[in-house]
Model the fold of this input.
Amino acid sequence: MKLLKMFLIVIGCILLFIVVAVPFFIRKTDRTPYQQTAFYQQMNLRLDSLASHPLDIDSVSPLLAGWSKVNITPTHPMPTAGYGNRKGKPYESIHDSIYARAIYLQQGQTRVAIVACDLLIIPPELTILLRNQIQLAGIDYAHLYLGATHAHNSIGGWGKRYIGELFAGKYDSAMVQKLATAIISSVKQAATTLAPIELQSSVIESAEWVKNRTMGNKGSTDPFLRVLYFMQKNNPSSKAILTSFAAHATTLGGDKMQLSRDYPGPLVDSLEKKDGYNQAFFLAGAVGSMGPETKGANDWEELTNLATGLETAIQQNKQKQTITPALSMVTLALPMREPQWRFATDWCFRHWVWTKLYGDYATEVKVLRIGNLIMVGMPCDFSGELVKPLTDFAASKGKQLMITSFNGGYAGYITKDAYYDIPGYETRVMNWFGPGNAAYFSEIIHRIIAMP
Done:
């Protein structure tokens, strides 16, 4: 009888602990429509202010540009970022080097830098350093447009806490500072090569190289390769090219332990070596839900074929549009819903748990305008399924739109709101701030496009 009584007491204490403690760790998912939230009102005020106080744009002075790249390949093996099942395992060899590349733009007193890094993302810890140090390169942080190739075989070591280390291995503060230093160096070097340029753009249909990896044939894709051509007016042989595509850089599987840029690597290499460009850049586009349509007998052949296919599309393209230079850029702080990392449809971990596992980082929207071209950098894997209505709206306003991901903050995946309750990697595990973010982010971009 005593044993039974003790057993019941123990069970009762355990149940009491669960009842008292569990609400301390978890809560119900917040499904308040985003239009009724305080963060939405804050964003509206910021957009209203921007619309009512447009930036001064010097459209008379010539547009100048220069470009540079800095090798960021480590001198010793580092954790390999990109696939959680690697658990931060270091790469075993170097297949191809990785770089930080910069295009420096100047028109009158306006100075802007576009930075493309051969990394999985531009990690928030790196962004914190750049926010404080980029002035060393002669520009303000608000005029720094950041992007990554999203290569899943690049270096890690840049993510603090559990979630960051799950995808990028053990945090290495010295390595993160080296990345910041390399980016600053690339921007500085690019600024020394300024010359008047002519800028052109193309939108090239490349549907055969991208697929919807989340919804398959039930979903849509962003099938366009977007290209910017920079040509020095006084020296036409001095030219650069910037490309952006929506297919994830995941032709190499998680079992490949070689440092590599994935398909963006041979794409930019070929553009430089075969097509006469002094420098080529790649920025991951709206990669959310978008996978590479692979063709080949193995991962490396698939990688080569995809890069070659995109290069061929660029070579064969004859449709180029000249962009009238009128340079401006703004960085908008992006308020969001309290993070709610879900483990079930209507249940998520509390904010303090999220902070311990990932951290609290600022999110922003980067908006770079050159004439009728609008480049929007998003802090997430922005879904390619959300792009067409936005590009169509931009076209109706006589504007071109290029959306890129990984602008220095990271808010997980932004997929169609209709998918929010579908169990899955992109729709639940990595959808950290929903619901309603597809509509919220799209509304922000829509309003940016509508501004004069």
In short: The CA atoms of residues 23 and 239 lie 59 Å apart. The longest strand covers residues 195-205.
